[in-house]
């Protein structure tokens, strides 16, 4: 398939706001695409080159892309900069200059995709100049519409307003003209969360083989199982029956993939966060994990928790997340040694355990990990006593933990937050007028600071939750942040500013910020109360919101849902 044909679909999608029409258009493109190119087309539709766990990124800034456009069309860089400021989009800027030329590109999708991969993976001395030259040659060879979209991809601003979930619905629609296969496809996606691979498998193998013969693979992160909320311990027992209690640590969720090597010295090890990013570099000590595992290969679900080397007490989430730094990791590992609390196992020796009950998986987990202080199997206690659950929750909070997770003994490992299999314990005897749970929100935009905050660049930010497949506002936050948090916020927001309101944002005109940002920064907020709101598009507002922490381990699709807001606020 020629890329210029794909670009016409991209152009149509950009101009379409109706979710169902977007799905139908995507389905039409999926039907038309060949099985050898559909995965690449899906990635490009999402503005990426690979699924997030493969970590292939361009590292191209807007200033570099201005140079690319200038070189592609042999125009002075200052002239391109002026046109960019006028139209507000580098894709539209490229379109403006490309439209003045004649001729049409006949490059195939696979050719363009392979060029982009080669450009993105170019590293080392002189790589920036080579990237500029290569992108300029590619864009210069394209028709205007193709150039517009290819110019946006390297800087992460394709802005079509849909995610993997919409693609999954479109795959179903391409088969049956409805969403009847979506549930099965989402289940398969939870095991192998690569929507390009999913589309390719459906094209090559058919829907039945794709969804029925799915199992975890080493090196591909399983979508983690998440906990629901239930208001009371009495309701937990009623809905879940016999349960197990596990401690809840204030760490970072890490899925560890391990396979023994032939020489027993260099095992295959990968670590993924709950948002499927490869963070193996954060944990160099995992190379020693093999000495504690009695299996050829395994996939573990864990919580990585930092330990103060002086006191041997667990440190908080923010301290643990300093491991995100890509430099001096060895020193950081010494300053903040880590312990992995292992609470589940989803694969052993190539065999999926996801369909086994929780209690059986825990038995296997205990059999394959040798007792040690580095990778520690969580304790669990079986009970049907609501009073005991409350006491254990309070005991663990008093010890400095976050409380407990309650798990149904018979539950399978099911990706995502579905059913009452795992439940957060947030019930407290006295909340002092405050919500008993926090809310994860996506930052949608921000306004300038005044007075002292003018130095920070941010005065307040607009935050939203997930309402169906859109982002709806629930609060503005401008107080309760430290100077350091304001500075961190400004640093992050500067990199994700966009000139137009992103698709999928539902915002009342009276709440529109000075600057919009792409939905990528997640914050955890505490509040005193959730109230009904006529202005916030979620229908609710947080009363006295305050920033708890930045959630770098979560994506925008993992923020709190409207249904959860109603549960948290007892609405």
Report mean pLDDT, rounded to a whole number.
89
Number of distinct helices: 20
Profile the largest sheet.
8 strands, mixed
Give the strand content: 15-25%
Oligomer designation: single chain
Structural class: alpha+beta
Q: Give unreliable regions as ranges.
A: 427-433
Helix percent reads 25-40%
* Radius of gyration from the alpha-carbon trace, in angstroms: 25 Å
Shape: globular
Could you tell me how far the N terminus lies from the C terminus, measured between alpha carbons in angstroms? Answer: 51 Å
Number of strand segments: 21
Summarize this entry quickly:
By secondary structure, the chain is α+β, with helices and mostly antiparallel strands. Helices cover 35% and strands 19% of the residues.
Structure notes:
With about 575 residues, this protein is an alpha+beta fold. About 35% of the residues lie in helices and about 20% in strands. The protein is built from 20 helices and 21 strands. A hairpin with an 8-residue loop joins strand 3 and strand 4. Helix 1 runs antiparallel to helix 2 (about 20-30) and helix 6 (about 90-100) packs antiparallel against helix 9 (about 145-150).
Task: Provide tags for this entry.
six-stranded mixed sheet, alpha+beta, single chain, eight-stranded mixed sheet, 571 residues
């Amino acid at each position: 398939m020629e890329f210029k044909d794909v670009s016409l679909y991209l152009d149509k999608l950009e101009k379409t706001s109706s979710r169902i029409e977007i799905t139908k258009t995507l389905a039409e493109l999926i039907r038309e695409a060949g099985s050898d190119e559909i995965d690449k087309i899906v990635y490009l539709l999402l503005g990426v080159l690979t699924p997030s766990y493969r970590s292939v990124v361009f590292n191209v800034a807007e200033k570099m892309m201005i140079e690319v456009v200038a070189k592609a069309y042999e125009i002075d860089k200052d002239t391109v900069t002026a046109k960019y400021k006028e139209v507000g989009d580098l894709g539209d800027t490229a379109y403006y200059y490309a439209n003045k030329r004649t001729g049409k590109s006949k490059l195939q999708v696979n050719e363009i995709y392979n060029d982009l991969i080669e450009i993105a993976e170019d590293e080392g001395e002189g790589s920036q100049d080579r990237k500029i030259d290569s992108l300029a040659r590619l864009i210069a060879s394209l028709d205007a519409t193709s150039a517009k979209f290819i110019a946006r991809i390297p800087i992460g601003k394709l802005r079509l307003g849909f995610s993997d979930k919409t693609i999954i619905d479109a795959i179903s629609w391409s088969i049956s003209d409805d969403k009847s296969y979506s549930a099965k496809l989402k289940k398969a996606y939870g095991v192998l969360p690569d929507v390009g691979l999913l589309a390719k498998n459906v094209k090559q193998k058919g829907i039945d083989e794709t969804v029925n013969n799915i199992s975890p693979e080493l090196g591909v992160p399983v979508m983690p199982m998440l906990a629901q909320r239930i208001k009371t311990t009495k309701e937990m027992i009623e809905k879940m029956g016999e349960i197990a209690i596990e401690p809840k640590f204030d760490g970072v969720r890490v899925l560890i993939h391990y396979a023994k090597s032939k020489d027993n010295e260099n095992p295959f090890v990968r670590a993924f966060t709950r948002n499927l990013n490869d963070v193996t570099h954060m944990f160099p000590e995992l190379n020693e994990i093999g000495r504690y595992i009695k299996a050829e290969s395994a996939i573990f679900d864990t919580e990585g928790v930092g330990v103060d080397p002086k006191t041997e007490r667990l440190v908080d989430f923010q301290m643990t997340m300093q491991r995100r730094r890509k430099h001096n990791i060895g020193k950081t590992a010494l300053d903040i040694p880590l312990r992995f609390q292992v609470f589940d196992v989803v694969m052993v020796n190539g065999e999926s355990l996801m369909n086994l009950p929780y209690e059986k998986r825990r038995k296997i987990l205990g059999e394959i990990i040798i007792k040690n202080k580095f990778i520690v199997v969580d304790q669990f206690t079986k009970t049907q006593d609501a009073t005991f659950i409350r006491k254990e929750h309070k005991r663990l909070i008093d010890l400095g933990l976050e409380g407990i997770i309650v798990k149904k003994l018979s539950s399978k490992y099911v990706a995502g937050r579905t059913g009452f299999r795992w439940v957060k314990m947030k019930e407290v005897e006295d909340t002092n007028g405050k919500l008993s749970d926090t809310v994860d929100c996506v930052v949608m935009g921000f306004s300038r600071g005044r007075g002292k905050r003018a130095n920070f660049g941010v005065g307040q930010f607009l935050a939203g939750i997930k309402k169906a497949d859109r982002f709806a506002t629930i609060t503005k936050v401008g107080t309760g942040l430290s100077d350091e948090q304001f500075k961190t916020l400004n640093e992050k927001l500067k990199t994700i500013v966009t000139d137009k309101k992103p698709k999928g944002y539902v915002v009342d005109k009276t709440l529109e910020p000075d600057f919009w940002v792409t939905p990528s920064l997640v914050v955890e907020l505490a509040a005193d109360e959730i109230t009904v709101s006529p202005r916030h598009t979620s229908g609710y507002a947080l009363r006295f919101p305050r920033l708890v922490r930045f959630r770098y381990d979560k994506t925008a699709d993992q923020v709190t849902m409207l249904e959860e807001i109603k549960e948290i606020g007892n609405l």
